[in-house]
């Protein structure tokens, strides 16, 4: 069956709702993990390329943690 979201197999519609929700949650977690990995790689690059001291690196990590905290608060 072809629809707006692409091709779906008939058996996808036969799965229980809780299985479909669990699959969606796992996909979302995977996507978030990929974003986190990318962000950590960027932070490591900034620390290395700028030759930041341990204090500066800690401050950079703290700022990033605050960004994530703000994003989490906006979701709730």
List the helices and strands and how they pair.
Blueprint lengths: L1 E2 L2 E2 L9 H33 L4 H22 L1
Antiparallel strand pairs: 1-2
Protein name: DUF2732 domain-containing protein
Organism: Mixta gaviniae
Overview of the structural elements:
By secondary structure, this protein is mainly alpha-helical. The chain has one domain (about 5-75). It contains two helices and two strands; from the N terminus they run ββαα. It has helices at about 15-50, 55-75; strands at about 1-5, 5. It has a two-stranded antiparallel sheet with strand order 1-2. The longest helix is centred in the middle third of the chain and has 33 residues, at about 15-50. The chain is elongated, with a radius of gyration of 19 Å. The protein starts with a strand and ends with a helix. The mean pLDDT is about 90.
Question: What key attributes describe this structure?
Answer:
2 helices; DUF2732 domain-containing protein; two-stranded antiparallel ribbon; DUF2732; mainly alpha; 76 residues; elongated
Mean pLDDT: 88
SSE arrangement, N to C: EEHH
Q: Percentage of helical residues?
A: over 70%
SSE-based structural type: mainly alpha
| Widest sheet, order of strands | 1-2
- Shape descriptor: elongated
Largest sheet features: 2 strands, antiparallel
Count of distinct structural domains: 1
- Span between termini: 36 Å
Radius of gyration, taken over Cα atoms and rounded to an integer in Å: 19 Å
| Number of contiguous helices | 2
Strand content: 5-15%
How many β-strand runs? 2
């Amino acid at each position: 069956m072809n629809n707006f979201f692409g091709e779906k197999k008939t058996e996808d519609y036969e799965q229980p709702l809780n299985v479909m929700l669990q699959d969606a949650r796992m996909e979302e977690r995977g996507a978030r993990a990929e974003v986190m990995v990318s962000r950590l790689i960027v932070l490591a690059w900034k620390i290395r390329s700028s030759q930041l001291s341990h204090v500066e690196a800690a401050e950079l990590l703290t700022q990033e943690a605050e960004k994530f905290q703000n994003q989490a608060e906006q979701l709730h």
